Queue: 2 jobs
Job 1
Amino acid sequence: MTVLRWRPAVLTDVDALTDLFAACEQKDPVGLDVEPDRVRARLAMPGLDLARDTLVAEDAGRIVAYGETADMGTGPGVLRIRLTNVVDKSARDQATRRLHDWLIERASQLRKERWPDLPAMLGTRCGAGDPERLQLLADADFSVVRWEWTLVRDLNAPVSATAAPGGVELVPFDRRYDEETRLAHNEAYADSPTAMIPDRESWPSHATGLPTFLPDASVLALDSDKPDGNEVVGFLFTLDHVGVDGRPAVLLHCLGTRPSWRRRGLASAMIGNALTACRAAGHHRAELHVGGDNREAVRLYTRLGFAHTGRGHAILTCRPPTDR
Ligand SMILES: CC(C)(COP(=O)(O)OP(=O)(O)OC[C@H]1O[C@@H](n2cnc3c(N)ncnc32)[C@H](O)[C@@H]1OP(=O)(O)O)[C@@H](O)C(=O)NCCC(=O)NCCS
């Protein structure tokens, strides 16, 4: 067994970390960034002190593990700290537990340094294909908030056409409606406890400003009776993506219908519209991630031909031991 060399990450690790993340995503996806630009942005995230908040393990000069504690800001009376524990399969026995212990310790320090008066909530993701780490987390009193599963659809299979409800026009994404779409998004996701509710600043990195965003395969639903403002009643964002089989795919990344427009077939029509656009653009496979507890959405997707891949990850949280 080789001895791993441990050190903090540095900005020049971007390519090596991108390789590690891509290899791990291929085996057991948890939604890590797999493009160098996004990994670079992650390492340069405001508030992330690389020297203290990250740890990498090298095996003969190759990075085989990465740990990170990230201050995700304060929620209602609590500091949220994200723990990232990424280990190449070849190094799991040596690195997973060591990183886990370091992350818990570092998270406690981070809270004391930055928000000594607030309790912390630790959050992390763990792939369905990593039962050992799931057990490690359960033993450390983490509990699963929810599972997210990856569903897939062959774009060559016929798409059943669902018409949009009367008075609604479906159009490809149009940047003029970007801010209005953000408001529609935040209204649609207001009741989803773990959903991100982006502000103006963080909105572009949510979808419409990403380099992988596909505007022509994304859909806006516009209420024709409200020509000035408030007319975006539904949206579906599509991204260029590498599928769970390692081949090119599109990702139906984010879908929502404003509450007063639900159960009229709008989401079904937007999905049908996007799938047709993706197929016309030469794509063959569509994937999406859905929360296992989001029954409405799972039913909708399976009705429209999406199937489970068996790939998915759990989102887990716990109070740090020092706060209990
Ligand atoms: C999930 C979501 C997008 C569904 O949007 P929607 O526009 O209501 O979806 P649809 O109307 O196409 O389908 C929803 C249900 O309404 C039913 N429906 C469709 N037309 C209908 C009509 N005219 N009358 C009654 N019911 C109807 C559909 O059959 C479907 O029911 P089923 O799943 O039991 O078959 C919406 O609930 C939402 O925005 N949720 C919050 C965000 C979210 O969870 N997004 C998905 C993340 S993965």
Job 2
Amino acid sequence: MKLYMVSLGPGDYDLITLKALKALKNADAICVPTKSEDNSFKRSMTYKIVKALMDEHGFDKPIIPMYTPMRFKVEDWQNQVNILQESFKQYDTLSFVTLGDSAVYSTVYYLLDLIEVQNPELYKNSEVIPGVTSFSDASAKIKKPLCVGDSSFSIVPLHKKNVPNTTVYMRPKIGMSTEDIPQSGELCTFENLNYQGETISSYRKEHVEKYMTLFIDFVKAQ
Ligand SMILES: C[S@@+](CC[C@H](N)C(=O)[O-])C[C@H]1O[C@@H](n2cnc3c(N)ncnc32)[C@H](O)[C@@H]1O
């Protein structure tokens, strides 16, 4: 039993990662969100992308529709989790797809939060595959950086004010103390990601040992 949560990127099929493409190719079936109650894909961007990828890269997988009404209700996420669990009776490996990057306003974590409680074994066998965000793509299209030199950038939702804020801290100096980094949630330390000596700590390391270190203060959504 393996569940891939696959980020498809911002809609340009070539901006999918190789890892995401491999997860789609390795899946026995692909779970695709649709806003249509009749489970059709007439309005589904995600379906278009998956179809185009299958055509271009020469593979064909059964598609499982996941009705996603965008009402932000637990019952809707539960319904999707039920479809996943039901599908595992027939398939061993499933890929669930999401637009852009799964880390940014994606259904992926609503589903994983439920799966973690209801099926810990499946949670353990799940893997999230990151992707290119819409705003990375926007920046690249007009050749303007999101942050460079002494600047930073924020993601601010427009649908609601005064929401909790997760912050990424980058570009530390080797040897610096981390005690001044503000913390509202869980401050995690990531060192040498994907390089030799990769370390992920679910706490604040006291001192910075490597240049390739970033900290994320993860706050819980309301
Ligand atoms: C639910 S969020 C999903 C974000 C996505 N996971 C990402 O990584 O970009 C949807 C919002 O992302 C932005 N967005 C996503 N795709 C976009 C696109 N192709 N063009 C412009 N904005 C986009 C819009 O602000 C939209 O309201």
